[in-house]
Amino acid sequence: MSKKSVNWWNIINKISHDKSTWDYLEPAEIVEILQRVTEAKEKIVGLDRYIRIHLGPALQKLQFLTDPWYVYNFQIYRYNI
User: For a FRET experiment, which of 11, 15, 41, 73 has its CA 20 to 30 Å from that of 31?
Assistant: First the structure.
């Protein structure tokens, strides 16, 4: 059985246009995306002008998985990671 490679930039592009994509990702995939974007922004100057991801849904999902009784009671606006 061959493993398919994942094109992370296609996923990141989809997330930047459709916030509901976060719902379909596993926690490990969310962390992987955040790490890849952070690494890319360190290597490529000016990339932060082109990649803007709304992290609210992802952070809410990760927080809920660590603490199911967590209440999402604050607003998270658009952050550049």
Answer: 73
Name residues whose C-beta falls within 8 Å of residue 81's C-beta, 6 or more positions apart in sequence: 34, 37, 38, 41, 53, 55
* Domain-located, residue 4: no
Domain for residue 1, yes or no? no
* Residue-range definition of the domain harbouring residue 52: 23-81
The answer to whether position 28 is within a domain reads yes
Structural contact between residues 56 and 72, judged by C-beta atoms closer than 8 angstroms = no
Give which of 43, 61, 59, 63 is closest to 51, Cα–Cα: 43
What are phi and psi for residue 53, nearest 5 degrees?
Answer: -120, 130
Looking at every residue in the chain, the average pLDDT score rounds to 74
Tell me the pLDDT tens digit for each residue of 10-48. Answer: 887 788 778 788 888 888 888 888 888 788 878 888 877
Domain count, the chain: 1
